[in-house]
Design brief:
With 205 residues, this protein is α+β, with helices and mostly antiparallel strands. The chain contains eight helices and six strands. It has two domains: 99 residues, Rossmann fold (3-Layer(aba) Sandwich), CATH 3.40.50; 85 residues, no CATH class.
């Protein structure tokens, strides 16, 4: 584990193992998030905090409300009530693409790799603030052609390597196994994070 993350994880050792306890450095904090489908309460979360720099699992039986909770947090569904912040920013009511722009990117149970693009092209889709995204810039190829060729190549390569996909970079995503597609989706999601350092291949604090 990178040294700059170790203290974040160490800090967790002092936290009681109880639901909803405050964390030393939370990246995500949710309060009173509830979602009802008719008479069924699918999500009822009083308080939860996710510690920065850790891999946190949410477990529960089928139908417990995990997917619905992720849908709510990332703007794919709306709660009946509740607030939550990511990096201190209120996200209730924020639309999914904005949530992603703010750095919280989700993946899906059924993978959504674009099968007729290569692995690298899928990764390129995850990068943010690309010049060619703007309608105006689109009509002036000289504005984005060079950027398209060089954009974040080292970031892509290191991410792909850390997900064991670097040998597959020129393969069509559709030719990957189910597991590899899931890995590609996670790697692509991480392209959004400005916290990924290309040069050191680790998370910046
Ligand atoms: N769009 C929906 N309409 C009605 N009920 C739903 C909808 N989405 C989820 N549910 C119900 O909410 C509960 C939680 O579902 P879900 O979040 O998919 O659980 P999990 O992901 O933990 O398996 C289930 O009872 C499910 O049937
Ligand atoms: Mg689910």
């Amino acid at each position: 584990m990178p040294d700059d993350l170790k203290h974040l994880v160490d800090a967790l050792q002092t936290v009681p193992q109880e639901a909803g306890v405050p964390k030393p450095d939370p990246i995500l904090v949710a309060d009173g998030v509830r979602r009802h489908f008719g008479g069924l309460t699918a999500v009822d979360v009083d308080h939860v905090e996710i510690q920065r720099g850790t891999i946190t699992a949410l477990i529960g039986p089928n139908g417990a409300g995990k997917t619905t909770f992720f849908n709510l947090l990332t703007g794919f569904d709306k709660p009946n009530e509740g607030q939550w912040t990511f990096e201190g920013r209120q996200l209730a009511g924020v639309r999914p693409h904005k949530v992603a722009q703010y750095g919280m990117v989700r993946t899906f149970q059924l993978t959504k790799a674009l099968s007729r693009l290569t692995v690298m092209e899928n990764m390129r889709l995850g990068a943010q603030d690309q010049r060619g995204e703007k309608l105006f810039a689109l009509i002036f190829p000289f504005l984005w052609r060079e950027a398209r060729r060089t954009r974040s190549p080292s970031r892509r390569c290191e991410l792909l390597a850390s997900f064991n996909l670097d040998q597959k970079r020129d393969d069509m995503a559709g030719s990957l196994s189910g597991g590899q597609r899931k890995l590609l989706e996670m790697a692509r999601a991480l392209m959004v994070g400005r916290r990924w350092s290309c040069s050191t291949s680790r998370w910046r604090a």
